[in-house]
Amino acid sequence: CRVRHYQFNVVMKNTTRLCSTKSIVTVNGKFPGPTIYAREDDTVLIRVINRVKYNVSIHWHGVRQLRTGWADGPAYITQCPIQPGHSYVYNFTITGQRGTLLWHAHILWLRATVHGALVILPKLGVPYPFPKPDHEPVVVLGEWWKSDTEAVINQALKSGLAPNVSDSHTINGHPGPISNCPTTGGYSLTVSPGKTYMLRLINAALNEELFFKIAGHKLTVVEVDATYVKPFQTDTILIAPGQTTNVIVTTNQNAGKYMVAVSPFMDTPVVAVDNTTATATLHYSGTLSNSPTFFTSPPPQNATPVANSFLNSLRSLNSRKYPARVPQTVDHSLFFAVGLGAHVFNVKGVFTADFPGNPPIPFNYTGTPKGGLGTNTGTKVYRLEYNATVQVVLQDTGIIAPENHPVHLHGFNFFAVGRGLGNFNPKTDPKNFNLVDPVERNTIGVPSGGWVAIRFRADNPGVWFMHCHLEVHTTWGLKMAFLVDNGKGPNESILPPPKDLPKC
Ligand code: C2O
Known about the structure:
This protein is mainly beta. It folds into three domains: 3-121, Cupredoxins -  blue copper proteins (Immunoglobulin-like); 138-312, Sandwich (Immunoglobulin-like), CATH 2.60.40.420; 332-484, Immunoglobulin-like (Sandwich), CATH 2.60.40. It is built from three helices and 30 strands. The chain has a six-stranded mixed sheet with strand order 10-9-12-17-14-15, with no helix packed on it.
């Protein structure tokens, strides 16, 4: 294993998209930002230098950060932000993980433009559990606003209504030619015939769960959130903000240009949402530049059956080499109604054990909950002893929004042991849990008007944020934190904070 050094200069950069130019916050002047490459077991040192007028922090989304919570990044949870003119070195070792993840700013809405890919290769000499692809391009999906990010944030903070809808989705930073600015260029991936390409897909959008499709090509899913899955073929990928998916594409079609389409998914379409389709091109080398592009249309915005069939196909690989270590017993069984209060900001000395109690179950998710079940803000965390097993049922009340809530847990992967529509029934639903090969991930869509059950082992001491990865919902309070105590063993305590940890 090696030590990898990166320098992230956070700088403003004039950037033109959709026929207009604005100054955006970037890393090293790039949108999306630079890709970080490392191998499993490597130590990564990233010096982040803040040269903009905003406070900044960076999160390495999905990196477990075993005992190094100081490098996790969410502002005011595990660190104070890096102030203008200051710097901080994120220092962490990648343990027991390989695959595609992402990094992004973790303060206000800065991640709109401050994000990029984090690729963890297997240890030297360790193969993938599938034939090695010929190429492994990174494909980052995002959103673009013509307004300044600041204006978009302010609208969300002030109005309490749906925020300024983005003007376009993007594929590797570009909306593609089908948009309200016809001259805009799109991302083009040049491919050779008869090869395999593993696309490392990342959804870095702020507020949109997305469908992904390529005209004329099947997609074989082999990994999600940097965990291997049982490979399966599909036409359409569903990917929520914060999620990653590796898919293998074989270039077995005739030479030509094939449209890549990205469009939003919502259970219940709302008029005021961004429904633009971002496009890119899979371009077989040797294709004449004036030849037409094979077209594909993405699923309709409310294609719940397409979404469900994709999600139901996801299973952990669970091979001898990569066993699914699903907790078979539960020390803490929690029930959270999405939208119910859950909390914030680690201020020293306020951790208490009296986290708000579970709401009654079965929970009446239809209509407005009675009895003070609305969102609270506070400084309480849910406290877990080291190595406890935890089950959380997340019930979407259906009162917040028509979309799934992609809930992300920092510091852990979890197993999605159950999922259903309607009210979670604590008597019958657990009988159907998959405790053998459920998908393992770090971000899970809680279905609108339904629930998911996740399990994890609290084997990472520190304070770990859990929140909806729709940025607007994080802003509105769909967030809480777990505090995992140190264990008694020699390697079971959080390491001391680094000397350059920013101060507030
Ligand atoms: Cu990718 Cu707390 O976020």
